[in-house]
Amino acid sequence: MSKKLVAYFSASGVTAKAAKNLAEAAGADLFEIKPEVPYTQADLDWHDKNSRSSVEMRDSKSRPQIAAGDAKVADYDVIFVGFPIWWYVAPTIINTFLESYDFAGKTIILFATSGGSGFGKAVEGLKDSVADSTVIREGKLLNGNPSVAELKDWVESL
Asked: In this protein, which residues make up the domain named Flavodoxin-like (predicted)?
């Protein structure tokens, strides 16, 4: 039986709730990917082309710093990585997280929350941030607060 981790970034709390339910459903440990400088509501205003999130997402090389923390990735075989979908991809802080640890030989299963878009090019945008031997799989959109039982069924189907 593989040891699992649910690592997530949540700007507004929606992804955090989904991640906690997923960790319970998967019998996984939980790790929050926290930005060194937390995002404000103004930072997240995607209507404002000068907001922090808009500026970061226009620059694929942007790597927002993450707060100190140790996800102990080496201890896990399967890592669920969750985030809100921004501009049809993962926020660049997810690239920062992936580039901060050695995921060689690991399986990463993505999950996301979204106001209406799908995964888009999320997998493609993350592949260069991990070793070639890392498997990244598009997982599931966890919108609408899925129950622990529903998530357990999904995890068991993987």
From this structure: 3-157
Q: What's the pTM?
A: 0.94
Encoded tokens for 95 = 């690239």
127/82 Cα distance (integer angstroms): 15
Kindly give the residue spans of alpha helices, DSSP state H, lying in 2-117: 14-26, 52-58, 92-99
- CATH says 4-157 is which class? alpha beta
DSSP alpha helices (H): ranges in 27-121? 52-58, 92-99
pLDDT band at 32; cut points 50, 70, 90: very high
DSSP strands (E only) in the chain: 4-8, 29-32, 78-84, 107-113, 135-141
Higher pLDDT, 2 or 11: 11
Structure tokens at 140: 């599931």
Task: Look at residue 152 and tell me whether its pLDDT is greater than 80.
Answer: yes
DSSP count for the chain of H helices, then E strands: 5, 5
Largest CA distance in the chain: 47
Please check whether residue 54 is in contact with residue 46, taking contact to mean a CB–CB distance below 8 angstroms: yes
